[in-house]
Automatic annotation (TrEMBL):
Matches recorded under Pfam families: Adenine_deam_C, Amidohydro_1
Matching SUPFAM superfamilies: Composite domain of metallo-dependent hydrolases, Metallo-dependent hydrolases
Entry protein name: adenine deaminase
Reaction(s) the record says it catalyses: adenine + H2O + H(+) = hypoxanthine + NH4(+)
Top-rank taxon, per record: Bacteria
Amino acid sequence: MYGNGVPQLQQVHDIFDVVHGKKEADLLIKNIQILDVHGETVYGGSLLIYRGRIVALSPDEDQIQVKEVFDGQGLYAIPGLIDAHLHFESQLAHPTALGEAMVPNGTTTIFAECLDLIGSAGEEGLEAFRMLFKDYEKLPYRVFAFAPGKKVPAHITEEILKEKPVIGLGEFEHFSYSSGNEEDFQKAAWLRERGGFQNSHWGITTLSDLELNYLPAIGSTNNHDVWNGDDIAKSIRYGYSTQIKFGVGSSEVIKTLLRAIVDRKFPTDNFCLCSDNISIDRLTKMGHMDWIISLCVEMGIPPIKAIKMASYNTAKYFRMDDQIGSLTPGRWADIVLTDSLSVIEPKYVFKSGELIAKDRTLLKHTEIGYDGMVTKGVPGLDDLRPEQLDLRPIEVSADGTQAKVLLFDVYGRGHAKFYQEVWVPYVDGKVVPELDGQKLARISVVKRYPAAGEERHIVNGLFKGVYVERGAVSTSFPAPTPYMVVVGQESSEMYACLKAVDQYSGACIVTEDQTAKAVFPIEIYGMMANMSVEELRAASAKIDAALEELGNHNEGEPVTNKLLSLFISLHRFRFME
């Protein structure tokens, strides 16, 4: 249970001696208000820590020996916060950079998908997984991983299921598992043979009620694919531990979900909190689980129940509540000290009894190199022509004044509003990028590497969410099939921007007059940036600043993250082959 290379008999002797005052404990955190997640109460006391774990609650200080005493200054002590479902690639940061941004917000454990990075590595997927998680135990947070359920060949998933720190199988594709894909059957069978958890991106918005029975029937017990109160009710009814995600879509979606929990009086024990996808910018500016707990409270969920949704509930679901999720003897001493339970403000963050962050600054820095995962660009657009990006009508009105075109909405993820067919002005044989008086940019979705003799797949339309009056912005996505998107007004400029990105394994680039204004390389298998947090934030900010000069007024996530999130829905709604 305790590890540390010490024989179990010696460990139980040592713990006996510590609690009887015959042996020194490592740390006493005193003068704190301790949150009891089991009784949902708060009490004044102290925590005694030995070999990284809590061994006693409020011991008599006259009867113990301890190496170090930490004065908690009357702050609240809550369990280290847990993200129930995070895509490792979504924030573009490699594991050490992620820790720099995330841990100071009080997050000490994540349950992570890594399917896009492994998918982008192709046949090197197993080696990429091993490099991604090398020395993971040195990170300032706990990480538990899932073997890819989608975007990765079955034989690679089978091997990754045997690796540490894997505890289960990641999410499937809706349209894949619902059609009886043989590789999905194999992946599910391997997991059932080994035991473990199967993540569920359930497909509630796209599949029939009958089809929705399949995943829970084969053993999936968690679901983060909910978008409204009715979705939540159905997810609970089917027996799912339902994960409320806050890193995807508009802020109104999150509030809709939390409002439904309060208004419909759903028992909060049903829920865990997760980010799903989140940017480094958001982590550093707004926070992580600490922020969503505060929003839960603002929406009417009692503070202690909100904290449990980001700690104990998740630990209990993953059958780790004997290790993490509460401040009780035997659990790892993952502790956050905050001056409020309703507005979480992490003053001190401990992992295994070690102070690793203070006042939103990481104190323990881990040096793990990822240079071996950097890949070179392989250009694939040599035969692309600017006119292939021209926006042509799906249909022209009888009077010739309007054209029907596709409209994509960056905030429409997860439901039908992601894409629509709309009528816009049509003048002198050209589409006018304007809808209901609102000026829009154009978008092109371009397959990067068509097979020999294959016509390149390109989808052209209008775009809502990033706007430029001139110039263009483009980025790439490598898995499961490499594609690129470009947003602009003129085909020649959009073409030049695509060609600039094509020189990298992955990048986001802004051009004006066919010359790069800002470049954000994403060169770890085209999915992660080989940068520190400061470098990553600076590169992202340069993209936003360049676009602001070109007419974009950005709100919410950085443009790079907005554009990358598009690929998830483009794939989901079959706009990528």
